[in-house]
Specification:
The complex is a heterodimer of chains A (112) and B (111).
Chain A (H helix, E strand, L loop, with lengths): L3 E4 L2 E4 L5 E7 L5 E8 L3 E10 L2 E4 L7 E3 L5 E6 L8 E8 L7 E2 L3 E5 L1
Parallel strand pairs in A: 2-11
Antiparallel strand pairs in A: 1-3, 3-8, 4-5, 4-9, 5-6, 7-8, 9-10, 9-11
Chain B lengths: L3 E4 L2 E5 L4 E7 L3 E9 L6 E7 L4 E4 L2 E6 L4 E6 L8 E9 L6 E2 L3 E6 L1
Parallel strand pairs in B: 2-11
Antiparallel strand pairs in B: 1-3, 3-8, 4-5, 4-9, 6-7, 7-8, 9-10, 9-11
The chains are: A mainly beta (112), B mainly beta (111).
Chain lengths: 112, 111
């Protein structure tokens, strides 16, 4: 039982490049979330999804897009990366009862 | 803006002492959850307290919730060096599917 898996674990991008981060969960959870974590800022919610085919904006959505074409996958896209998007990104999922969330191991992204 | 805010930002104690950290939130909640993060890792769920509960225990953890003050506290008793980590409170507003966190409390337990 893998839980929540994030791909890739590390990535270095040049300013203006695009990339997609993949989050996969095998717990049949309804809700999925993308966060970014910066020093001194805690976790900030970027986007979230309450089910297949649905997405919604969180606290800091600008510069990111998401898609949830399959229930088990939640993709986070950066269309034109900026140095301000250098961060550690975490994905999480939880069930319809909205109790505990399960987190992935994180993706460390550096934009140069 | 972030729903929850933890206090203090950093806490340093000796092994065997108790550690108390607090969380304040802004809107009515369904439940409040506490998580732990070891350096560089994802968050791990510790304990959940529902809006109609006032206190909950799990092993060395004790959580309280005061909905009138929109605050919660996490007490770790008889701390160990292995408890060194950052602790976050997470909450969902009533009727909301979002799960938001504060900036966390960084706990250091000195052997």
């Amino acid at each position: 039982n893998a839980g929540v898996t994030q791909t890739p674990k590390f990535r270095v991008l040049k300013t203006g490049q695009s990339m997609t981060l993949l989050c996969a969960q095998d717990m049949n959870h309804e809700y999925m979330y993308w966060y970014r974590q910066d020093p001194g800022m805690g976790l900030r919610l970027i986007h979230y999804s309450v089910g297949e085919g649905t997405t919604a904006k969180g606290e800091v959505p600008d510069g990111y897009n998401v898609s949830r074409l399959k229930k088990q996958n939640f993709l986070l896209g950066l269309e034109s990366a900026a140095p301000s998007q250098t961060s550690v990104y975490f994905c999480a999922s939880r069930g319809a009862s909205r109790t505990e969330a399960f987190f992935g191991q994180g993706t460390r992204l550096t934009v140069v | 803006s972030q729903q929850g805010e933890e206090d203090p930002q950093a806490l340093s104690i000796q092994e065997g002492e108790n550690a108390t950290m607090n969380c304040s939130y802004k809107t009515s909640i369904n439940n409040l959850q506490w998580y732990r993060q070891n350096s560089g890792r994802g968050l791990v769920h510790l304990i959940l307290i529902r809006s109609n509960e006032r206190e909950k225990h799990s092993g060395r953890l004790r959580v309280t919730l005061d909905t009138s003050k929109k605050s919660s506290s996490l007490l770790i008793t008889a701390s160990r060096a292995a408890d060194t980590a950052s602790y976050f409170c997470g909450s969902s507003g009533a009727g909301s599917y979002q799960l938001t966190f504060g900036k966390g409390t960084k706990l250091s337990v000195i052997p």
